[in-house]
Design a protein that fits this description.
Strand 3 (75-77) and strand 4 form a beta hairpin. Strands 3-4-2-5-1-6-7-8 form an eight-stranded mixed β-sheet. It is α/β, with parallel strands linked by helices. 50% of the residues lie in helices and 15% in strands. Helix 6 runs parallel beside helix 8 (188-198). The protein has helices at 16-29, 46-49, 59-63, 100-112, 128-136, 148-171, 177-181, 188-198, 202-211, 227-240, 255-262, 267-270, 275-310, and strands spanning 3-9, 34-38, 75-77, 83-86, 117-124, 139-144, 216-222, 247-252. It has a single domain, classed as P-loop containing nucleotide triphosphate hydrolases (Rossmann fold, 3-Layer(aba) Sandwich), CATH 3.40.50.300. The two termini are 26 Å apart. The structure holds adenosine-5'-diphosphate (ADP) and magnesium ion (MG). Magnesium ion is lined by residues 16-17, 40, 43, 45. Magnesium ion binds next to helix 1.
């Protein structure tokens, strides 16, 4: 089964597509089977970053049932280590017309894709669907840039993601699920208090769920004097949300990135020695280790479960 990884951020333009196109390419080059899915509604441009301008099929063909299987929308790049992508089209995730059934069908189909690593770009923002797709995966990556406005949006994104994680840890058992699901919460504390009221013991359950929510952080477009903002962000995340953000990498602001975009190539392909490329390659190696660790833990858990069954 594929390891699923989502990439999100609070704000558009932080460099999600850029980072993801490089991580996907490097993971594919290191010998893994990788499929990149573009669920970004704001700027579905993953295919363009690899020089594919007119994809024959996109995710919309699947959602509108013009093709039977999601695999019919996969495009393979033999020149990029066999990397596969499912191009988005911009209106695919439009919240208004994506029904619950469509979403379930999409999630089911995504988890059945035959690949080692499934990377999902969920786009920017905090819409219901964005957060749902972000939380659906095994591993989460957040991309932010270090400007104060991006950090603020990122904190807001993290807070809403955390609230959703806490809610989903006990909502499935609660009778009042619908009422709570539709309520708007302002803080995590409020959710935890409410959880305990609805179901004694739910606070602890939610806190446990949050302990395993450790989105990996990539800070992109890093320049001089950005350290302070990042320290503040980490402190706020730990103090108010109780979550720890492991560091996946800091990517410097680099004009080579702009050049690479104009050449329709990931920067790590165009110039592996550029500062941004070096940082991206390092981040992909780190991500590879996180993936291997996840696989090891998963198989250990399976062994434990099998042993328990035999007892
Ligand atoms: N490290 C970087 N250095 C310089 N420019 C960058 C860097 N990362 C991204 N950019 C530029 O920022 C813009 C937004 O990047 P993009 O990946 O499309 O963001 P997002 O997908 O988050 O909206 C692009 O024009 C891209 O070239
Ligand atoms: Mg993008």
């Amino acid at each position: 089964m594929a390891i699923t990884i989502s990439v999100g951020s609070g704000k558009g333009g932080t460099g999600k597509s850029m980072v993801l196109s490089n991580l996907a390419l490097q993971l594919a080059r290191s010998g893994r089977k990788v499929c990149l899915v573009d669920l970004d509604l704001g700027g579905p441009d993953a295919h363009i970053l690899y020089g594919l301008f007119k994809p024959k099929r996109t995710l919309t063909d699947f959602l509108n049932r013009r093709v039977d299987s999601i695999t019919d929308t996969i495009h393979t790049f033999p020149a990029f280590g066999g990397l596969q992508i499912i191009p988005g089209t911009g209106d695919t995730l439009q919240t208004a017309n994506m029904t619950y059934q469509q979403k379930q069908r999409l999630l089911r189909s995504l988890s059945r894709i035959d690949t080692d690593v499934l990377l999902v770009d969920v786009g920017a923002g905090t819409s219901y669907h964005t957060l749902d797709f972000f939380m659906f995966t095994d591993i989460q990556i957040c991309v932010t840039s270090p400007e104060p406005t991006a950090i603020l949006d990122f904190y807001n994104f993290l807070q809403l993601a955390t609230i959703r994680r806490a809610l989903s840890s006990f909502l499935s058992q609660a009778d009042v699920a619908k009422e709570i699901r539709e309520k708007k919460f302002d803080s995590l504390l409020e959710v935890l208090d409410m959880a305990e009221e609805v179901q004694p013991g739910a606070r602890e359950k939610a806190q446990l769920a949050l302990a395993t929510f450790n989105p990996l952080l990539i800070v992109n477009k890093v320049g001089a004097g950005t350290r302070l903002n990042l320290l503040k962000l980490r402190k706020m995340a730990s103090q108010y949300l109780g979550i720890y953000l492991p560091d996946l990498g800091e990517i410097p602001y680099d004009m080579k990135v702009y050049e690479a975009m104009r050449a329709y190539l990931p920067v790590s392909e165009l110039d592996p020695a550029a500062p941004a490329s070096k940082a991206l390659i390092e981040a992909s190696i780190k991500l590879g280790k996180v993936i291997d660790l996840f696989i090891r833990k998963q198989s250990e858990q399976q062994t434990i479960q099998e042993n328990e069954k035999q007892l």
